[in-house]
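Lab notebook, design round three. We kept the backbone fixed and only want residue identities now. Task for the bench partner: fill in a sequence for the structure below.
Input structure tokens:
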């Protein structure tokens, strides 16, 4: 007899849900054909390690004589905080649907999904190896060949192909309606990213007393708070494309030559520039944090230069691919070819795409600045900065990020291109004191 459950949108959360553990995983998942094929038929011989170091979920590496897989299961609360902050399990539903869409829109960019169990809020997927988290790779001063190009292509392809530029109107509206159910994770972004850093919210934390002065100045900046809320309005109201929702150095796994995207549970329909803006904000924080991780000054400057080159490459690849898709896959309801190319109005079509890319650039600059603020003033920080043991040195790195973030938010409608962003980063690196 089917157990009663609670209905949340299109997903039913059953009372049969139980969190996995290394001790119970083999017994509970051993009968699945996908596990027998991917790991081995003898569940008793599996090696199970819980490796989740994120804020929300359980993540297991399961190894056996046939291979290994990743098992990811949502918890009914925010792991970073504990069960005092409940969170619906339905986020696994949205992560699954985001992964299969990302794979369709940019094949090979995400782990292969092998199995999804809605009731248990778990996904079994390809284990990426020898990949490590990009944040770890960066902190070790190791470069990734082609990083900017691969991430720029991912951002452009998922942005274009998940929008009214490419999708049928019916498919796009159905997708928007479905992902609109990801209310709680959007609420996390709306609060922790766009609101809490700009006032003395309960869960905020920052390096004190070193940053107290600059934090007070930021929170007194009325014009800044107006601009941030303009960007929050864009986040909540402009459902232009399916966004990853949390694209940063902790949701990218890399080798020295390859990158793959993971963890899209924050997926929602939002602005074209959101994902790439959050990504570039994380690049910039890594740039300012590197002197704490590479002791040799020349090697550090070389790696910082590489990070800025990656930013430029990411944006260049995004623009080139978005432009290519505009001319080859523009089959949706926006900017129809009947109004442009079919009438010989090629110049107007080119003007339209360049204007759209300009709008995306302005948005990404604002989102990048806000991401830099929230990762220093809010609840969830970044390891590049948070692991710096010398509090005074850490504060100097963070002050550079805070000032640059403020500049980006306030100047997003004035900057003429990515060169201006990189110039501002170089200036912040040499000219800001905490």
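Proposed sequence:
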């Amino acid at each position: 007899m089917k157990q009663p459950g609670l209905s949340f949108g299109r997903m039913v959360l059953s009372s049969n849900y139980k969190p996995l553990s290394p001790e119970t995983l083999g017994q509970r998942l051993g009968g699945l054909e996908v596990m027998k094929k991917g790991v081995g038929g003898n569940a008793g011989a599996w090696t199970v390690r819980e490796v989740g170091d994120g804020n929300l979920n359980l993540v297991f590496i399961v190894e056996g004589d046939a291979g290994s897989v990743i098992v990811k299961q949502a918890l009914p609360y925010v792991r970073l905080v504990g069960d005092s902050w409940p969170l619906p399990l339905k986020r696994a539903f949205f992560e699954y649907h985001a992964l299969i869409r990302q794979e369709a829109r940019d094949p090979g960019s995400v782990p292969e999904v092998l199995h999804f169990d809605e009731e248990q809020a778990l996904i079994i997927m390809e284990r990426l190896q020898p990949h490590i988290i990009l944040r770890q790779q960066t902190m070790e001063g190791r470069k990734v060949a082609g990083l900017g190009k691969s991430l720029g292509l991912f951002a452009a392809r998922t942005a274009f192909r998940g929008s009214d530029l490419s999708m049928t109107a019916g498919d796009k509206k159905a997708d928007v309606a479905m992902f609109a159910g990801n209310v709680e994770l959007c609420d996390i972004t709306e609060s922790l990213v766009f609101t809490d850093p700009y006032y003395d919210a309960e869960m905020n934390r920052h390096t004190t007393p070193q940053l107290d002065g600059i934090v007070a100045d930021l929170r007194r900046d009325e014009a800044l708070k107006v601009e941030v809320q303009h960007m929050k309005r864009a986040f909540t109201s402009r459902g232009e494309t399916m966004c990853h929702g949390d694209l940063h150095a902790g949701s990218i796994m890399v080798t020295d030559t390859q990158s793959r995207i993971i963890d899209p549970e924050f997926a929602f329909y939002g602005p074209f520039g959101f994902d790439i803006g959050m990504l570039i904000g994380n690049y910039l924080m890594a740039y300012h944090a590197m002197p704490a991780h590479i002791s040799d000054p020349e090697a550090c400057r070389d790696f910082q230069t590489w990070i800025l080159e990656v930013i430029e490459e990411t944006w260049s690849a995004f623009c080139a691919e978005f432009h290519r898709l505009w001319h080859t896959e523009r089959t949706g309801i926006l900017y129809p070819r009947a109004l442009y190319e079919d009438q010989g109005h090629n110049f107007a079509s080119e003007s339209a795409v360049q204007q759209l890319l300009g709008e995306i650039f302005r948005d990404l600059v604002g989102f990048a600045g806000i991401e830099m603020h929230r990762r220093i003033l809010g609840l969830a920080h970044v390891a590049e900065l948070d692991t710096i043991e010398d509090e005074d040195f850490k504060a100097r790195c963070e002050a550079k990020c805070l000032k640059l973030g403020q500049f980006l938010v306030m100047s997003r409608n004035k900057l003429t291109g990515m060169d201006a962003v990189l110039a501002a980063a170089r200036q912040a690196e040499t000219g800001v004191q905490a």
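Keep this in mind before ordering anything: The domain at 5-126 is CATH 3.30.200.20 (Phosphorylase Kinase; domain 1).
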